Amino acid sequence: MISIIVCMIVGYAFGCISFAYIIGKLNHIDIRDYGSGNAGTTNTMRTLGKKAGIITYLGDVLKVCVAILIMWLVFKDDMDIEAIKLITGFGVVIGHNYPFWLNFKGGKGIAVTSGVILIYDPIILIICLVSFILVVYTTKYVSVGSLTICTLFSAYIAITARDSRNYTELVIFAILFTISAFYTHRANIKRLLAGNENKIGSKKKILGENENSQEEQ
Fold first, then answer.
1. Which site from 12, 22, 150, 217 is most exposed, i.e. has the minimal number of CB atoms within 10 Å?
2. CA–CA gap between residue 19 and residue 22 (Å, rounded)
3. Which residues share a beta bridge with 34?
4. What is the pLDDT of residues 43-88, one digit of tens each?
5. 203 found inside a domain
């Protein structure tokens, strides 16, 4: 139990490093005042362009990698590596979504989750990436693609980790990733059901100019 708590705390601390906010400040804006108001990859890309979005994404993936590496070095003799990856990774997602120093207003955790998927198993990352591209290309909704990859990740772990001694813990945390994604995308889901969710290519606006601005990572 102590190891789980430590992994969550360390993960949260790294998750609180908001690259979207930092990149925004380097460009003399508070990213939370634009677009969806989220400090995440998608909003950064829509607001500041592809280069800023890519840098933000790489930063979000890096913080996952570093947090998990540190926890592996600390607990490699006490915990299975799969458990370390998921538990620490989920802590990073929580920190990314609710950073204390930004009044708990961060991103939606999809970029961070993709980093966890990469480290957990590159095979499922490929499956999720292809699925994301196909879903977004077909629907034009990034939110639908984001929810799809989180659901696939949970299903993959539930199916492939059956022989693990930590199967229950792995499945629980995998489901938590999906629950977190659906919760942070609850506004998107409402708009999808109402038929007024913004599609790819929608213009960025200062927060407040568009009540239906799309919220993402």
1. 22
2. 5
3. 206
4. 999 899 999 999 999 999 999 999 999 999 999 988 899 999 999 9
5. no
178-191: b or e for each residue (b if 16 or more CB lie within 10 Å)? bebbeebbeebeeb
In a domain, 208, yes or no: no
CA-based end-to-end distance of the chain: 30
* Residue 103 CA neighbour count, 13 Å, CB half: 2
Name the residue among 181, 211, 175 with its Cα closest to residue 196. 211
Residue pLDDT, tens place only, 96-135: 999 999 999 999 999 999 999 999 999 999 999 999 999 9
Determine, yes or no, domain membership for 199: no
Tally the domains of the chain: 1
Q: What is the 3-state secondary structure (H, E, C) of the chain?
A: CHHHHHHHHHHHHHHCCCHHHHHHHHCCCCHHHECCCCCCHHHHHHHHCHHHHHHHHHHHHHHHHHHHHHHHHHHCCCCCHHHHHHHHHHHHHHHHHCCHHHCCCCCCCHHHHHHHHHHHCHHHHHHHHHHHHHHHHHHCCHHHHHHHHHHHHHHHHHHHCCCCCCHHHHHHHHHHHHHHHHHHCHHHHHHHHHCCCCCCCCCCCECCCCCCCCCCC
6 falls within a domain: yes
Identify the burial level of 167 via C-beta atoms within 10 angstroms of its C-beta, where 0-12 means exposed, 13-18 middle and 19 or more buried.
middle
